[in-house]
Each structure stands twice: as C-alpha cells, then as structure tokens.
Q: What sequence folds into this?
C-alpha cells in the first residue's frame, strides 16, 4: 500500500481560511486516504493554530512594532518549540530566539542574555579579557573596562545617582558581553534595579563602545511597568546623547517582555510608551485563548456518490460532494464571501449576479463580485508533489497579503464582523435531498 494513487488540492499555505470552508481535498483509494487522516490533521491543526495566534498578536501590536518569538522554554517539547518558531514567523513575527529555527528556516535570530548570566558576576576582577580593537580597525585595542569605568561617574552625575548604588557585578557582566558581542550589545536591565543600576551600567558600556565606533543595539525590560519605564529610558538615552554628543544613543532599541499577551498588547497601545520590540513566549506558543484547533477530516464522496455526516448536532454536519471554493471580492478590493459550489458547476462570472445560500440560517442571497478567485490549488498529484514549495518567508508574505484583503471590521480582534460563507443553489439542493433521504 502506498500513496501513488493519492492527489491533494488545497488552499495555498499562508491563506486565510474560514469556518466550514474545506481547507483541502484528498482524493484516492479509500483505505489509503482514511489512513492519512491522523497524519494530516496533526500537521494542519497546530500549524494553523500557532500561525493564527501569531497573526492576532501581530495585529494587536500594530504594523510598526517588531515582534520577537521567544517561546521555546514554554513550548510542547523540542519538536513543538521548533514548529512554533516557524509558524510564529509565518503568522507575522519578525524574529526568533530559537537558533535552530533560524538555521533551518532562514528566520532572523535575535536575543539578549539570561538573568543568571548577569548575576553570576560579582566584580570587575572577573572580566578576564579586557581589551577590544576599534570597529574600524584603526589603532590599538583599548581596555574596555577602563573606558567603561571612566564613563560611569559621568553618567551617574547626569542622572543624579550615587556611584555606590550601581551594582559592580552587573557592570562586569555587561562589559564581558560587550567584549564577546560588540556589534550586538543588547542587555537585560532588571536583574537588580533598572533605574538605579541597570541603565547606568548600560550607558557607561554603550558610551565606551561608541568610543571604539561600535553601535550599541539597546536594552530589554522584563518586569515592572514596561510602558512607564520605556518612556523614562528614552529620556535618559536622549539626555546622554545630548550631554556627551554621542548621536548613536538616539537610535537605541527598547525591547519589552514579561508574559506579554494579546490583552497586554492592546493595553500597551493605549498608553504612552517607547517600546520598539516586543518579546512574546508563553502566550504565543501555548495559545491559551484557544489551546487547540478543531479541524476535521470527513468523507464527502465515494465511487462518485456524495456522502455526508448528518449527526444530532447541525453544526457538525458536513457538506456533501466534491467542491470548488471561490473567494468573491468587492469593488474596493476586499473579500466579502466564500462560495462553495460543486466541481462540475461553472465558475462564477465577475459582474454577474449569483444566487447562493449563506451557511448558518441558509437564507437566500444574491451577490455580484467584482473579482472571483478560485482558491484550491493542486499540490500533490498521483503521489507526487506537483508545484514548487514556497519558502517560509514567501508564506509569511502571503499571510500579510491575505489579511489585507479582509475588511477592517473583519480584522478587528474584538467583536469582529462575521465573514460570510455560502453554498451554491445546486449544492444546497444536493444537501437538502441527501438529508431527506438519510432521514427516511
């Protein structure tokens, strides 16, 4: 037994799909396609769930703020963590902290450091290799510890913080990190005190790096009032830039993390803040608002005869027959209805009225589309992949393009307007007649 007789047509990966619309059609020998049920549902359900959750978080954050996926520690095992990184990127996130996902899927990788790294240092004597060559390669290597120590009193004076309040171990950790990653200096500020230690140590080391013509990246906040702290940090960076005439401090990034959710992102948008990048972990990969997706796999035709599941619950009954899926667009370019029709029916014509029945109440409706798009594409034919597989980046681009075709009222996260799905009159008649025959 093999899959040489199996063919699959489906939505292109990265498409927006609505309730009751067939995601894919699997055609082939009955025993073989029945055996594929669990595998296909496993592959589709989690991927669609995490991508959809990522897309919602992307919408909540807005288009300008960068999104960092950092959910590996909370994911459902190593396989789930790797999958979640890919699907989060597809859904609209910009970066991942998962280095393997970056290597395998070409996702930009970013991150900071652990609290344990910072708290493992206690004094500057622990900084073993102290010198750093200038970024432009001109001149000798200089002692970064001494440069940072020289800057720290000036920063303390500007911010009116006594030198004794600043944690020396934290400064040692920042210097050691800067020596290892001078072009990627992005540090965690809240191991001790953000405003009385972390930001002062960061500014001292950042100014030392700027002396050597390196561009510091920024800071991460992981506790407390992220919005309020970000505003104060931006003020400090601009004050240091102005006082010390160092323009590089004007473009520092502020990353916010700490149990970020869809709700907290919406609240963040309503407050003044200077957060450039948001790191999301638990609420991304575990999908707490909907922990599973209920895609199902049902028989709709066998030996040319339509089949359906009737059930006691009308919401779980299936639509019989092999179907074509059409997406109808209005004059303004927005999709307004998905139409399911039997495969043998003619393609709906643009500008011509079509009668249909809207799923749910089955009310009659006449619709006219400015543009009609046939959605399902043949992707697997007689056991062979029949089209070029897109890259992860291409799928991500398709997601954003597909979301942009929806009306803003349907894209909003709170009380969205329901998108209509309808069946053709011919499919409705088949459904009605088959229901009646099964009940008799």
A:
């Amino acid at each position: 037994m093999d899959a040489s007789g199996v063919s699959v047509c489906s939505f292109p990966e990265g498409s927006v799909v609505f309730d009751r619309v067939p995601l894919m059609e699997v055609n082939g020998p009955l025993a073989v396609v029945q055996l594929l049920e669990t595998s296909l549902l496993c592959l589709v359900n989690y991927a669609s769930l995490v991508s959809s959750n990522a897309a919602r978080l992307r919408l909540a954050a807005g288009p300008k703020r960068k999104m960092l996926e950092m959910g590996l520690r909370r994911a459902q095992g190593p396989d789930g963590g790797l999958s979640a990184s890919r699907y989060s990127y597809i859904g609209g996130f910009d970066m991942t902290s998962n280095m393997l996902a970056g290597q395998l899927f070409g996702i930009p990788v970013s991150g900071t450091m652990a609290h344990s790294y910072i708290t493992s240092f206690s004094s500057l004597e622990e900084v073993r290799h102290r010198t750093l060559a200038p970024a432009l390669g001109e001149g000798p290597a200089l002692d970064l510890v001494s440069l940072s120590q020289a800057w720290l009193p000036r920063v303390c004076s500007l911010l009116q913080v006594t030198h004794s309040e600043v944690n020396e171990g934290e400064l040692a950790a920042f210097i050691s990190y800067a020596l290892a990653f001078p072009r990627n200096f992005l540090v965690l500020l809240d191991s001790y005190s953000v405003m009385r230690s972390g930001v002062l140590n960061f500014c001292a080391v950042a100014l030392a790096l700027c002396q050597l013509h390196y561009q510091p990246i920024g800071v991460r906040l992981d506790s407390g009032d992220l919005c309020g702290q970000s505003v104060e940090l931006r003020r400090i960076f601009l004050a240091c830039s102005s006082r010390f005439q160092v323009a590089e401090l004007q473009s520092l990034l502020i990353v916010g993390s700490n149990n970020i959710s869809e709700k907290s992102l919406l609240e963040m948008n309503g407050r003044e803040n200077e957060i450039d990048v948001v790191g999301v972990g638990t609420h991304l990969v575990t999908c707490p608002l909907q922990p599973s997706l209920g895609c199902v796999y049902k028989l709709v035709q066998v030996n040319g005869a339509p089949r359906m599941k009737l059930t006691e619950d009308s919401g779980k009954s299936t639509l019989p027959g092999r179907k074509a899926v059409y997406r109808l667009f209005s004059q303004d370019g927005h999709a307004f209805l998905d139409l399911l029709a039997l495969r043998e029916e003619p393609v709906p014509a643009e500008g011509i009225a079509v009668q249909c029945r809207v799923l749910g109440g089955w009310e009659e409706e006449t619709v006219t589309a400015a543009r009609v798009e046939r959605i399902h594409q043949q992707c697997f034919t007689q056991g062979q992949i029949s089209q070029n597989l897109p890259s992860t980046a291409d799928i991500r681009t398709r997601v954003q393009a597909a979301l942009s075709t929806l009306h803003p009222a349907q894209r909003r996260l709170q009380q969205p307007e329901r998108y209509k799905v309808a069946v053709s009159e011919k499919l409705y008649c088949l459904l009605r007649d088959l229901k009646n025959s099964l009940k008799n």
In short: The chain has a mean pLDDT of 95. The two ends are 38 Å apart (CA to CA). The chain has 14 helices and 20 strands.
